[in-house]
Write a structure and sequence with these properties.
The protein is built from seven helices and 15 strands. It is an alpha/beta fold and 270 residues long. It has a single domain, classed as 3-Layer(aba) Sandwich (UDP-N-acetylmuramoyl-L-alanine:D-glutamate ligase). Strand 2 and strand 3 form a beta hairpin.
């Protein structure tokens, strides 16, 4: 049984204070390093225009590329290197949707579940979501991308504006777990037909909401923060890896918090 993680690989510019570096990014990229260590039966499916972007994945044999006419580009700007909870972002808002026909020839025969990582609302049309739901396996979704819209144009890129997406209820209906941060939770509310919601809040920890309970997870203290880009994606993958191995939500959250803290001490992936 194979866990399938789907979403764009990106070309990123990370600016921390006055230091700039170009990196490969995208939630699926960051998560692949976590799954490579903690849940080895996975397959990453990425959409982009540059196949060379997958050269830095931990195992190229576990990556399938859906070639598109563009690649997501992000600028991640942290003006205060001592406050990595605050980030400003720009994006080219690449319109490169993943359709069911893109997936039919690359999906494995036996699927454990899907991890969906949209970076904007174009990546997963609702028809694709319905197609993946038809497999009747657990689906884990990062909500943030569905909430992103282009704002003001700045040097051929766009400021990222967050707002509710009118198709969100249909997209999330019946999925296993959704992942979002506190700002997004306050924006869209918590009234969704899902098994659990995992809400992160940077250095303030996280919480897990189910039908019966709310569990608070403390952040693991990190004394030397280097780069927080991809930290939420790392948390998500670590949490899923434990849940699929039958750990409780609390155990999974505490493990995810620990792994996310270790990611903070590194530039790039976990």
């Amino acid at each position: 049984m194979v866990l399938v993680i789907i979403g764009p690989v990106t070309h990123d510019l990370v600016i921390i204070g006055d230091e700039e570096s170009e990196k490969i990014g995208g939630a699926t990229y960051f998560q692949s390093f976590v799954f490579e260590k903690f849940y080895k039966d996975y397959l990453a499916i990425v959409n982009c225009s540059d196949v060379n972007l997958v050269n830095d994945f931990p195992s190229k044999d576990k990556v399938n590329v859906i070639l598109k006419e563009d690649t997501h580009f992000f600028i991640n700007y942290y003006p205060d290197k001592d406050d990595m909870d605050y980030r400003e972002q720009l994006s080219n808002f690449a319109n490169i949707p993943i359709y069911p026909n893109d997936l039919k020839d690359v999906l494995p025969d036996e699927i454990e579940g899907f991890v969906l990582n949209p970076l904007n609302k174009y990546d997963f049309p609702i028809g694709t979501i319905e197609y993946l739901k038809s497999f009747n396996v657990p689906i884990f979704i990062s909500v943030q991308g569905f909430l992103r819209s282009p704002g003001n144009e700045v040097n051929d890129n766009y400021e990222i504006e967050l707002g509710n997406f009118n198709k969100l209820n249909s997209i999330l209906e019946g999925v296993s777990s959704i992942f979002l941060d506190e700002h997004e939770a306050n924006m869209i509310g918590l009234d969704f037909d899902v098994d659990e919601m995992i809400i992160t809040n940077g250095s303030h920890g996280s919480r897990i909401i189910t039908n019966n309970d709310e569990i608070k997870i403390n952040a693991v203290k990190c004394n030397h923060i280097v780069d927080s880009t991809g930290c939420g994606d790392t948390y998500m993958a670590a949490y899923i890896s434990k849940r699929l191995n039958n750990y409780s939500d609390r155990q999974s959250g505490e493990f995810a918090s620990e792994i996310a803290s270790k990611k903070l001490t590194k530039s790039g992936h976990y």
